[in-house]
Structures are given as structure tokens and as C-alpha cells.
Design a protein that fits this description.
Layout (H helix, E strand, L loop, with lengths): L9 E4 L4 H10 L4 E3 L2 H9 L8 E4 L5 H12 L9 E4 L5 H10 L4 E3 L8 H9 L20 H17 L1 H14 L5 E7 L5 E7 L39 H9 L6 H7 L3 E3 L4 E2 H5 L15 E3 L1 H6 L7 H14 L2 H14 L7
Parallel strand pairs: 1-2, 1-3, 3-4, 4-5, 8-10
Antiparallel strand pairs: 6-7, 6-9
Helix pairs in contact: 6-9
């Protein structure tokens, strides 16, 4: 390589071509290299002030580790989004297609031929980040949503929020009077393409519910002995408040998600956005396809099996995958028509 030096710091993760990486490290003198994502997390977590302009992955594709790293990055306390690219030379054709389909990195480049564009690549992708919330970004290759469905989402969510505002206030007061803590509960969730966003709902549990998961693991409705996705749901969950039980059974706790729809994080119809610990367990080829569909308030699973105790993990995810594969505008309207009869569930799960 014969290139004029520039001042840019990058983070190289792994290496399939040691000679190329060494030359790049010499050229981009402020850059650093780690062997895997575990070392990358450790380096970025240290108070060294090192924040690379670009993360360059140059190693065999480890699907689960890549998604786990993306989820960690989305919740990074420094709230700094770092663009990620993959070295094309480290991937086979099947892996290339997978990354393009799932859009898990910002770009895929031939590191040996296109090293000169790294600084421009970093500036271009970073310029697309949302300035108002550095932990959340605009996807350069975001999954497309049917224009009519997006218009429908905006009209329905805006209208519903306006008309239901008195109900919002009444429910908020009920939640606050029933137990200590905020009326609205928010948590990071993984939606379409594993994109992380802040998910809203009325709080239905005690304020420290997340800390009690380990105590209730033995009562988990979804078996942890079966290899595969890791879901957590308990029948007659003791963390649920009296007001919360009513809100859950009537689905009124879902109303704040109308704001997620209005913001574009979710759609009225789609697959449920998952807590991050559940999303990480769905990163295998067998399960990840369910993330090709948008996150939604209602969906195929809700109108088919919502509240069913006998529903298995595989059955639940299979419904999500079926929806992702067959999604259509007409199908979404059919699901919406079936939603009212599915709102009242008969079991406390």
C-alpha cells in the first residue's frame, strides 16, 4: 500500500489478513486492534478517552456475537454511536448475503482495495446519526415500510393519542396511586433488524420488578431446558400490581406504544419488540428471521395465541417468522380486524 497518512482512529476487531491490518495500523497510527468483541467492549468501556471513528470487523462471522455487540453498543453509557463496517474479504458469499439481508452493519467493504475511503466512510455514516439521541440512529439501509401502512400508522396513532388523552391521564393516576414509581415504564427493546429503541407502556409491576427475575426463574412458563430462544413469563406473577393486572388483561397497558408508532419505532401491526436478553437468544439462523418484520403493537401471535398457557417457545417464534415471511398490507388489515376479540385474555400470563 502506498497511501498518504491521515489522522483518524479506528478500531479493528479480529484479523483475517494480518499483513493488511498491520499496514493499516501503521498508517492510521491512532487506531487500535482487538481480537474479538469481548476485548472491544472492554477497551471501549475503559476510561481512556478512546472513541474510534469507525469499527472495522475483520474476522469470521459470529452472528450471535455481532448482534450482542450491537445491543451492547446501543446501551453504551457513553451514548456515542460508532459506525460499523465489515471486511468483505473475511466473508463467504452466504455470509455476505446474510449481512446484507439483515443489515447488521453499516457497510461491507473490501478492506485491501478501499482502505483510502475509511475516513470518508466514517464521516458519511456518522452524519446520518440522529443528533437528538446519540443512542438511537437512522439506519442507512433501513427496512422499507409500505408507504400506505406508514401513513396509516401516523394517522391512527395521532388520532388515538388525541382522543384517548383523558384515558391516559386516568390510567396514569391509577398507576401512581397503586404503587410507588413512574406511571410510564420504558425499556430498551429490539425491533426490526435488531434496531434498539426505547419502548413505552404503562407500568404494571412494582418498581424493582427487574431485580426479581432470578427469584422467579423456576416458575418461568417457557422451559429453559430446551435449547433455543430465552423467553420469560410467569403465571400469576407476584410482581404485578392490582391496577397492573387489570391493565394487562384489558391490554390498556399497551396504549403508550402509540407514541412509539408515531415516532416510527413501531407499526400498528408487527412482531412484538423484545427485551434485549430475549433478543440475544434469537440470533441464530433458525430464529433471527422474525426480526425482518417491523415491531408492532398487535400481530399474528397476539390474535392467534395471546394469553395461552400451552403455547411453546417454538410455536410463538414460528408465528413471528410466518408473519415476517408472508407480511402484506392486506394481511395486516386482517390482523387488525381480529385484534379487538383478542384484547381480553383469559389467563394471567
Amino acid at each position: 500500500m502506498d497511501i498518504a497518512p491521515v489522522t483518524h482512529q479506528f478500531l479493528f476487531v479480529g484479523s483475517t489478513d494480518t499483513s493488511t491490518t498491520c499496514e493499516l495500523l501503521n498508517h492510521f497510527s491512532q487506531s487500535k486492534k482487538v481480537n474479538d468483541f469481548t476485548e472491544a467492549v472492554k477497551l471501549l468501556s475503559e476510561e481512556t478517552g478512546f472513541i474510534p471513528a469507525l469499527i472495522i470487523i475483520d474476522g469470521p462471522l459470529d452472528y450471535k456475537e455481532l448482534i450482542s455487540f450491537k445491543i451492547w453498543q446501543a446501551n453504551w453509557k457513553k451514548n456515542s454511536y460508532i459506525p460499523t463496517v465489515y471486511n468483505e474479504l473475511a466473508l463467504n458469499s452466504e455470509e455476505l448475503n446474510k449481512l446484507y439481508k439483515q443489515q447488521l452493519v453499516d457497510d461491507i467493504i473490501n478492506l485491501k482495495k478501499n482502505y483510502g475511503i475509511l475516513p470518508d466512510k466514517a464521516r458519511f455514516i456518522s452524519g446520518m446519526a440522529l443528533k437528538k439521541d446519540n443512542a438511537k440512529r437512522v439506519e442507512p439501509h433501513q427496512h422499507k415500510t409500505h408507504p400506505l401502512m406508514r401513513l396509516f400508522d401516523i394517522v391512527v396513532s395521532a388520532t388515538a393519542i388525541t382522543l384517548l388523552s383523558p384515558l391516559f391521564l386516568m390510567i396514569g393516576a391509577c398507576v401512581k396511586l397503586g404503587s410507588k414509581g413512574p406511571a410510564i415504564y420504558s425499556s430498551p427493546r429490539a425491533g426490526q433488524g435488531f434496531r434498539i429503541f426505547k419502548f413505552y407502556k404503562f407500568r404494571t409491576m412494582v418498581a424493582d420488578a427487574d431485580k426479581k427475575v432470578a427469584e422467579l426463574s423456576a416458575q418461568n412458563q417457557y422451559s429453559s431446558e430446551v435449547k433455543g430462544p430465552n423467553f420469560f413469563k410467569v403465571k400469576d406473577d407476584p410482581r404485578i400490581t392490582k391496577c397492573g393486572k387489570f391493565l394487562r388483561n384489558s391490554s390498556l397497558d399497551e396504549l403508550p406504544q402509540l407514541f412509539n408508532v408515531l415516532l416510527g419505532d413501531m407499526s400498528i401491526v408487527g412482531n412484538r419488540p423484545l427485551p434485549l436478553y430475549e433478543a440475544v437468544s434469537l440470533t441464530t439462523d433458525e430464529w433471527a428471521e422474525r426480526f425482518m418484520a417491523p415491531a408492532g403493537i398487535t400481530g399474528l401471535w397476539q390474535v392467534s395465541k395471546r394469553g395461552s398457557e400451552e403455547m411453546s417457545t417454538a410455536e410463538r417464534v414460528s408465528l413471528d417468522i410466518d408473519y415476517a415471511r408472508t407480511r402484506s398490507l392486506g394481511g395486516d388489515f386482517k390482523i387488525m380486524l381480529k385484534t379487538p376479540t383478542a384484547l381480553l385474555q383469559k389467563t394471567n400470563v
